What we know:
The protein is mainly alpha-helical and 138 residues long.
Amino acid sequence: MTERRQQLGGGLVAIAAGVLAAAMIYLRPETLNVPAWVAYVACAAFVFAGLAIIAHEFALHRTHAWLAVACVASLGVPGAWAAFGPGKRECSVSGPFFSSGGSDLVCRGAFGLGAVIVAVLLVWMVWRALRHGSGTEP
């Protein structure tokens, strides 16, 4: 199998995984611990990643750049919701020699730090995507 076919196959598998997960959410929304929209956005990350892989294989540079932005934005939403969304959060904290329940503040703080890191990455990626659109970068 050629590398290009492997990449295209991987892209299609990622898209299928996102669509399948979204279908499962649609069929059993009561099993979620988050609002359905948060879960759907997480599923969209797989779809955007698959489309980005396919766009890259067809040398659609601008499209690839913006699909990568959409993928990272989708990945950031669940963490941002956990950090800044309404309601109390419950999580567990574990290490090599300990495990315990984390407080609302610890949960929100950890997810908040992750959300800030993803936001910084997202700003950088938008800047790069805008440069692709202006023709200053291949």
